[in-house]
Each structure stands twice: as C-alpha cells, then as structure tokens.
C-alpha cells in the first residue's frame, strides 16, 4: 500500500488509489477499443472501469460506515486492480457486530442492483421496441459489450449482483468468510469458529484453483489470496487469544536498560550491540520519563548523521507515545498499538512510569505462550482413556 495516492477524505476516511490501478484502466480501454471507432471505444472502456470502481468504493464505504457506527476506526480505503480494501483498525468483539460490518458491503451491491436493473431494462426496452421478455433479456445481454447507455447500465447492474454474490463466498479475506465466522462465533468460541471458517475457506480455495486450472488465471490468483488470507486471519485471532489473559504490567521487562537526554547517540548504539533490547525509554536528569528511542529511529539517524548528536535531539517525545495501564490486557495493548501505529507503548500507573512494551516483546510472548496454550488445548481435546474390560 506504500505506493498509493490519496484522492480525497470523507467522514474521517482517506480514500486512496494504488498506482497499479492504472493497469486496470488500460485493460478496460483495450477491451473496448476493438469497436468501429477505437478511440471512442477506449474512452468508453475507461468510463466503464471508473464507474465499476465507484460501485466498489460504495461497497467499501458500506463496511466502513457500519464499522464507525460501532466505534471501530477506519483510517483508509484503498482501491486496487482486484477491488477495494477498507482498513479496519480492529474487528469488533461481538460476533453480531462483525456480521453487520461484513454483510454491509455485499448489501450495498445488491441495493445498487435493485436501483440500476429496472432503469437498465427500461432503457433497453425503449431501444428494442416490441418483443417478449426472453428476447428483451437476450438483447440486453448482447448490449453489454456495446458502447452505449443501455449497455453500460446493464453491465453495472449485473456486475454489482455478481460482486455481491462473489463476496459472500465463505472464505477469508472475502466478506463471506467473516459472515460465516461471525455466525459460528454466536454458538462457539471465537478461535474455534475462525478455525472452522478458515478450513471452509481453504476448501473453497482448492475448488477455485481446480476450476482455474482450465485456463482462468484470475481464479488461480483469487484461490491463492483466499488461502493466504485465511492463514493470516487465523494467526491474528490465535495471537489475540494468547494475549487476552496477560496483563501489561506482568509483561514488562524488569531488567530493561534506559538512556538519558544528556547522553550521545553513540551510547544507544553500544546498548543495541551489547543487549537484546531494541527500544529504550529516555529520562532526563531528574529521572522523569521524557521520550523513547526506537531501533528504526536510531537506524534512520545513523544513516543521515552518524553517531554525532544527543539522544534528546532524535527521541520520540513522551507526549507522542501511547499510554496504557498495567491492568490492561496485551490484546487491548496490541489494538492500541495498531490504532496509534506505534511500535511502543508506555505503561503507567497514576502517572508513574513503569516501563515500555514493544512489538518485539509481544511477538516473543505470542510464540512462547502460544506454544504452551497450543499444547494445553491439544491435551484437553484428546479423549480420556477408557479402562479395558
């Protein structure tokens, strides 16, 4: 997403487009350029693609506005050649809320279909004149690839219907995967519901790949993304499951080193080289917490100005560091980091600084505690041995 260009901002959401979107515009121009007037056909093809992605954008706003209603922040919507992505900073805790957010996108497509189809059929009927209903539908289908108003309306109506149905396929990262997971989660634990939904999604990916082997490259790509998306979703949910019972205060490194504002950058480099620590709290001479020096920031400074200078000149001020309490769970801390796009948070109790938590700390805990929980869960799921008769 790093090569995306911001188009506009509405309702607190940045709408941006990836540079590769130009490829799909070129494809649309090429598809329709085989008409009697190639230039007019190419322009029409670009218009078709742009209007199609207006519908995709409305689909993503369906997700985004329902998410914002449930107090879930949505910083960006990005348009890509394969569709759109609404970036939700977290999923709601309640399955019914997730269901409503997930179903909102396809619902927008179905509403657009209901609005466009009658108008399309009316315009097609006016152009066709008399005829039966079956001949009207056949004529409408033939007009889809013809640069015309009726062809455009038919194309948009049917494509919105197809988009709505396609997104309801029960496979992550499509909306249908989240709909299935949310419905399952109403009757069973969230992690188990995710595992079942991911398994169903992988079966769908295999089916799509099998069909795509007949020469449909797009289906093969979709099958790949479905398989990868399911794995990523399962990892995220299992990570949260691991973190939900650990408090921030219990995860602090009591042996963590600290640096001072009066010290040079060279001191931080020495600590990076001689310890496993990557991020350092910064204190002033009065032992007050005043900032953080992170490894990415330190590396950036070393590239631009070397080891010269003081830590106070390059640190992140404490006012810009998210603050959490020691009783907050690491799952909530993780959400706080994602919402603030910060690799560190300061743990404080009644204004007193207790320590730093970093993404590296949480990643290590996910691996260590996750392995323990996985073993406990596997043992709990085994049937107890029965006595021999």
Alpha-carbon distance between the two ends: 64 Å
Task: Output mean pLDDT.
Answer: 82
Structural class call reads: alpha/beta
Largest sheet: number of strands, sense, barrel closure? 4 strands, mixed
Helix tally equals: 12
Number of DSSP strand runs: 11
Secondary-structure element order, as H and E? EEHHEEHHHHHHEHEEHEEHEEH
Shape: elongated
Q: Give the uncertain stretches in residue-range form.
A: 384-389
List the strand order in the largest sheet: 1-2-3-4
Task: Please report which band the strand proportion falls in: under 5%, 5-15%, 15-25%, 25-35%, 35-45% or over 45%.
Answer: 5-15%
Number of domains: 3
Helix content: 55-70%
Radius of gyration from the alpha-carbon trace, in angstroms: 27 Å
Could you name the key traits of this structure?
389 residues, CBS-domain, four-stranded mixed β-sheet, disordered C terminus
